[in-house]
Amino acid sequence: MSLFRKGLAVLMRIPMKAAATSGQQLATTPPFPPTNDASSSANFFESYPSRKVALTDVKEWMQASIAIPSDKIEFVDANLEQFSKGYLSLPQEGRRELLLVLARDYDVNRARVRELMAQYLNLGFPQEPESITEDEQSRGRVRDEAFLASCYRTERNLRIALKPMYDIFFERLNAYPGGLKILAVLRADLLLVIEKEKLPSLRALDLYLKEKLITWLSPAALHLHQITWDDPASLLEKIVAYEAVHPIRSLQDLRRRLSTGRRCFGYFHSAIPGEPLIFIEVALLKEVAKAIQEVLWDDPPFLENEATCALFYSISSTQPGLSGINLGKFLIKRVIELVRRDMPNITVFATLSPIPGYVQWLLSKLASHLKLGEEESENETDSSEIDFSSTLKEHVLLPEEERMICESGKALADGNSGIEILYNILSSTNSEWSKSDCLLSALKRPLMRLCIRYLLEKKKSGKAVDAVANFHLQNGARIERINWMADTSERGIKQSAGIMVNYVYSLEKIEENAMAYFSTGHINASSNIYQCFQVRNCEIKLFTIFELVYI
Amino acid sequence: MSLFRKGLAVLMRIPMKAAATSGQQLATTPPFPPTNDASSSANFFESYPSRKVALTDVKEWMQASIAIPSDKIEFVDANLEQFSKGYLSLPQEGRRELLLVLARDYDVNRARVRELMAQYLNLGFPQEPESITEDEQSRGRVRDEAFLASCYRTERNLRIALKPMYDIFFERLNAYPGGLKILAVLRADLLLVIEKEKLPSLRALDLYLKEKLITWLSPAALHLHQITWDDPASLLEKIVAYEAVHPIRSLQDLRRRLSTGRRCFGYFHSAIPGEPLIFIEVALLKEVAKAIQEVLWDDPPFLENEATCALFYSISSTQPGLSGINLGKFLIKRVIELVRRDMPNITVFATLSPIPGYVQWLLSKLASHLKLGEEESENETDSSEIDFSSTLKEHVLLPEEERMICESGKALADGNSGIEILYNILSSTNSEWSKSDCLLSALKRPLMRLCIRYLLEKKKSGKAVDAVANFHLQNGARIERINWMADTSERGIKQSAGIMVNYVYSLEKIEENAMAYFSTGHINASSNIYQCFQVRNCEIKLFTIFELVYI
């Protein structure tokens, strides 16, 4: 990454390593420190690894940042600066210990809370309305405002007392230049720790911090900026580092994504200068693309003003610590508004999205089916298992599919049945199958069909289980089409069996769709998708439908 | 103001009316509406007066914005838009009623709070630490996390229950584009109502909103922008409208304040685009100016890089609704940092500031002295009054001053004593005295001397009673010099008897001064000012000192 020092122009000929720091890995070793000055953030690469700080020092700076009274606020900044630098230089174990100290030692003062509660309950609340006579009511009104004044006072004190002591630490960090970034790093670390140890105190800390971040990162406080090739290298290197969907492979690749026929928009917050919190990449096309290869590799062969479709092909959040704070929804809406205003010819807004959970889900289904099959032949199954297995049997492979897989799959994987062969093919470490024409034609039908079932049927708490599907559905998009061999990259084959989805945003339907999804869990999909879903036994029709282009 | 439509360049020859909408008047009739789009805000001038909305409608939009559950958030924005437009079109009385409804009907749900309190107190808190045996302690630790989990849950519910229902209204407005501006207008109106009726419910509403605004407007979330002649007219017209200290009289005046030898910096928030929340005007000079006339009228006769002093001659907050949220302090610090970086020759950072409370204070002191004098001649005074009157007598006029005022003042005002004449001169509706050389020389000494007493001595809750003095002192500045006939404008004479103060910001002393002022109320002033304060009987020395230039 330090190659960037030498200037982007010189480096145009040197291919870059695929973003090693992309995605979730950022949580543990944030590449950028807090700075008072946007321009100096790039210097971090030099200064970061050389510093060594003791955990006890970092704890002391944290404690001082909390303990300094408000009238000595001038000392807080110096401590926060020390803390920020120190915290970033700590290894994961040190951060974990610090977070535990914060969660436990800077918790709510419960003695004070109970004292105020006793005071509040003794304020002399009036009786319940039904038991009050009219005379009492009118007397009540007179003393109303005076009584309310004591309520307000005690309630305010209670609100203050119910804040954990770490509240002031968060507030002060938020006010400190660069502090918001530290808060995001802190929460990312917290989420990593919680994944392993579900301690109530850490979860309470996380919930509290998340709520603070939501109010600070209100969409109205973010500004949209179109990222172009004219932006500083220090910003562009972040796009390279954070692109989580389709890694940027070279400077040519980056340049293409920012040039004619392409757009890149980021949401920025003043407290984190020079770095988007989230960004989206858009291709201007004549029709909705069916494969990511066309978008990433082909140069646009037409003029921008001939485009009729804006395709969102990548959306990446740069801060793992802002997980659960849906900035993407607002970003997509703002970008649609902007593109519509600037390019009235563009009337279709669609995505080309991965299905990151598909293969994993399918493998687990195939595995339970295989296990059930074994058990069935060994002993009697109880009634609940029968239900489960029969549903699965119905769902997994049709007889024709079973036959085709057995015929074509044997070359690549062992197995006594189509299901076993499919399982072995999909779980193998390589993705050889996607290079065999014979296997591709045998697997297309079952994998496409099961993919639709996965998207439409698989839910968790009433929402689509696939994270990307859930994201677009809750934003009010519709599942329009699924595309075979749409992402033939290693990751595309591994995660989504090479399939990608076009979600469509119809502006006039966004609210309606989102509300239906929220209230009833109804998944909006095109009629073609629903037909495929229903006609799973009419094999010929199925093939026909997948060949249709219907956007 | 609509002249701006035709473009600033064309209008260079047309003098503008002095900002009729400047300062506090904005509170009641905010000139700019909330918009989704920064560029359209200027259109408000056309659309604003024509709309008429019923109060009941505005109430309903407000109620709907609060009542819509979070899973139907899509409907909220439409209601907030209606509400924002409707609210701005209401007359003051309608706004007052709406604020009362908000404060009273959307208050804390006290039944729910008491229910949760009972629940909390029944959680089974452990005994106080001193009465716990070691054995109990170790058992306690085991159940600690489980017990804490219930604490966290109930505390979180309590925090939610203790939020007034209007909290969600504020949160939703803050997330809505243009909503932050509406919140500022709402609070400005609230402050106006509270000034007249100190209802506890309204004060609780104000306190709550103020705390929310403080966390949303954290200095790290604001961005500094240097405002220049190249900025859009829609931004520059706001500088004209909001300049509260020295009204901008013409486009030439505006241009001069943004050109060579001058700087103007604003603090902007992404949610209020195209409009600074606060801005500061700076003159680059060779020495600290003694009169505002030099700064406003003279063209800088030297090159910028010859300047050694940055003079802050005006700081204006544009949002009366953000009163009590000290953004100015952070702005001054940021500007000092920026100027030091860009222009290392500049080593002195000073202000030229009015003393807005001086004449008003002096008049009330003179009046009580006159009243006491009358009472003294009529009847015996009790002991407390003796103390008061003797202190005052000692303070007001020295014999030599008394004599000079009697001699010179008679031409302009009646009176039996110097004090009475001074009172009549200063309370007259015109400011004739400032045009008479004779009176100027008679009044200079007492008015300068008393001004120092006012600045150094007059305190309220341990802080300087003058708002501007308190602002700079709490930011860590020092009172360096006071200047006679430094602001000869109508307002300058009326408010400050034409006197202005130079406060100096010495970067290395800012924190120390601010802390001393906070903790002990110590007012930092130059040794010359303190000498004048102490040698009030050595008249000759006094004159000498005031002629010194000591920065």
From TrEMBL, chains A, B:
Residue ranges constituting the Malonyl-CoA decarboxylase C-terminal domain according to the UniProt record: 221-505
Segments forming domain Malonyl-CoA decarboxylase N-terminal: 153-216
Pfam families found in the cross-reference section: MCD (PF05292), MCD_N (PF17408)
Residue stretches spanning the membrane: none
Molecular function per GO: malonyl-CoA decarboxylase activity
InterPro entries in the cross-refs: Malonyl_CoA_deC (IPR038917), Malonyl_CoA_deC_C (IPR007956), Malonyl_CoA_deC_C_sf (IPR042303), MCD_N (IPR035372), MCD_N_sf (IPR038351)
GO CC terms, sorted: mitochondrial matrix; peroxisomal matrix
One Gene Ontology term from the biological process aspect of the record: acetyl-CoA biosynthetic process
PANTHER family: MALONYL-COA DECARBOXYLASE, MITOCHONDRIAL, PTHR28641
The protein's name: Malonyl-CoA decarboxylase
Species: Dendrobium chrysotoxum
